[in-house]
């Protein structure tokens, strides 16, 4: 019943918007109307011009009453035109604007204006050169934008490489991004992806840098966005396929560690655009040294495991999208994506087990395999009006995920005997349906209202080898928001809003766990931005956010790949609630950029993994409340016109207190540092070097070790800049990256030492093909689900190594 009510609420907004926009029906009676037709052509070649913009303006009041774009034959038809005198305005990129006077009458309401010729702004219109240049970094009221298409050093790279250059973002060695030390939600063109939920690093490696237009960093999301967690939102904007004709890109990257390939093919004819993409990834298996220690002081036991695991990781993905502009005010788009990833590892460890005064030695062998398959389908309708900035959208998305996990582990003792294998498997299905409507209305140039409704319906079914342990979980979310933007003064912009969300949760696991929970929350947000002298901006913001735990956190499946280090989800987790206050300052000085911020963040019911020594189990828990202070400084400087220096430093405190037990971690500081130098030489040569240092991270029970890595690349444009070849290197002077993770308490110590095989060398090649002409892009909107807490570093480290093997 609640699902039906949520859906009816969403449809109610659609109906209301339909009434406002006049999408059908209505009581106004029009007695006489006609139509105006014309063909737009090139004055020099006489060829028809498709996708030219047509506007019909009434002469007596100079009011725009109709508009459209020409089709593939240069023809345009304007319907429902009342008899009057009009100005027909024609515009198209690379051509001079032209206005033609027309008149219709009640006796002759239909008018054929014939062929109208327009002339080019330059003598050769076969190729259009776009000379306007967007700055590499832009600072807007609610986000910072990194325009990746302006960075020539990204050619032949992937989205993970691009992320390392984005302000305030830190990327670990395997490509997982964090924002000011906290995990973030990554969106593609404002939409979530099931693949991102499973493995952010894998999904990013599948996106070639050539496809990325910009990256938006939203540290303080407004009420328009789903209730998101402490970190913020990273939104990757891909290049719009607005080019007429056929074009594409092929890229391949091969090396001693990672291998990637990607192919995209896009076409646009008139109002119809088609995009397609296919990518593959393969990580060469390498031995990873692992040393695990488990000491239980109460039971007087000790366990040491020392050996190697060999990880595997491979996958592929593909997508096909269609965009169709019905006319100048209405457009449709749809997209379907499929992703398939497989990870796993084979382990062989020597074990020394001591119980009181008895010591046993044996070897443990294990196989662990996981696969992630996901299909995302989305459809969007967008309508604009003659009023600039007014917009109504309806979006829907269906996501179908299937995850499988199986393991097999056994021991061989010194006498040659083999233990009974420990075997387990789990199949999880995650289906998600979303429908939303958004409406934007500009009261004036400086006052804009945004409103919307949204419904999300999630169903999770997890089946184990024993049907008695099956886990069924349902989560329904209904949301409504309103955001108002206005100018408080000439140099002061304000953006404030309120979001309301209702969540209904139910689930059952076997015969021992049956739960229901529902909660209603309000999420206010506010941003005040002041423009100062010298291209400087000062911003103060506040918002409240929530992150609900995802399937990895909730699934009670007991993974016994290592019986001495088992893992299990917790379906009784509560969501995290976060309040964030931030003061930011940014300035642009002769092409150099400085972006600095300080913030206070309070998070209730922090979700972290915890180790239970008596059960030899790692699970998840709401460990307590965290009050954190932090700062971030990003800078970009050009000592010479073609030499760019870039750096980022983030620090935040960690102090979690559990109100039930009274246990407090005390104050600790977590910090990250990134530095980069890039030089562009004449002849199409580009080079860069970078380094990353992530300091030791404090957790509720212990610490996660520091890590440092560095790399560089040389790239060369060839074939008249249609292709790029490159050589890259990562940690050339150190084969392994050593990371130590430790959990400890009064009665136990658990430590993990992993030596990831990091050193790698590789080559890359990227080629663009196709001859195109350009038309104006249209803004697209879609579903954006960013409310689920994900695993930090979901893709693992060192090509998919599972530490606890």
UniProtKB/TrEMBL annotation:
<comment type="similarity">
    <text>Belongs to the TonB-dependent receptor family.</text>
</comment>
<feature type="compositionally biased region" description="Basic and acidic residues">
    <location>
        <begin position="783"/>
        <end position="792"/>
    </location>
</feature>
<feature type="signal peptide">
    <location>
        <begin position="1"/>
        <end position="19"/>
    </location>
</feature>
<keyword id="KW-0812">Transmembrane</keyword>
<dbReference type="Pfam" id="PF14905">
    <property type="entry name" value="OMP_b-brl_3"/>
</dbReference>
<keyword id="KW-0813">Transport</keyword>
<keyword id="KW-0998">Cell outer membrane</keyword>
<dbReference type="Pfam" id="PF13620">
    <property type="entry name" value="CarboxypepD_reg"/>
</dbReference>
<dbReference type="GO" id="GO:0015344">
    <property type="term" value="F:siderophore uptake transmembrane transporter activity"/>
</dbReference>
<keyword id="KW-0732">Signal</keyword>
<dbReference type="GO" id="GO:0009279">
    <property type="term" value="C:cell outer membrane"/>
</dbReference>
<keyword id="KW-0675">Receptor</keyword>
<keyword id="KW-0472">Membrane</keyword>
<dbReference type="InterPro" id="IPR036942">
    <property type="entry name" value="Beta-barrel_TonB_sf"/>
</dbReference>
<dbReference type="InterPro" id="IPR039426">
    <property type="entry name" value="TonB-dep_rcpt-like"/>
</dbReference>
<feature type="region of interest" description="Disordered">
    <location>
        <begin position="777"/>
        <end position="805"/>
    </location>
</feature>
<feature type="domain" description="Outer membrane protein beta-barrel">
    <location>
        <begin position="384"/>
        <end position="767"/>
    </location>
</feature>
<dbReference type="InterPro" id="IPR037066">
    <property type="entry name" value="Plug_dom_sf"/>
</dbReference>
<feature type="compositionally biased region" description="Gly residues">
    <location>
        <begin position="793"/>
        <end position="805"/>
    </location>
</feature>
<feature type="domain" description="TonB-dependent receptor plug">
    <location>
        <begin position="145"/>
        <end position="233"/>
    </location>
</feature>
<dbReference type="Pfam" id="PF07715">
    <property type="entry name" value="Plug"/>
</dbReference>
<protein>
    <submittedName>
        <fullName>Outer membrane receptor for ferrienterochelin and colicins</fullName>
    </submittedName>
</protein>
<keyword id="KW-1134">Transmembrane beta strand</keyword>
<dbReference type="InterPro" id="IPR012910">
    <property type="entry name" value="Plug_dom"/>
</dbReference>
<dbReference type="InterPro" id="IPR008969">
    <property type="entry name" value="CarboxyPept-like_regulatory"/>
</dbReference>
<dbReference type="InterPro" id="IPR041700">
    <property type="entry name" value="OMP_b-brl_3"/>
</dbReference>
<dbReference type="GO" id="GO:0044718">
    <property type="term" value="P:siderophore transmembrane transport"/>
</dbReference>
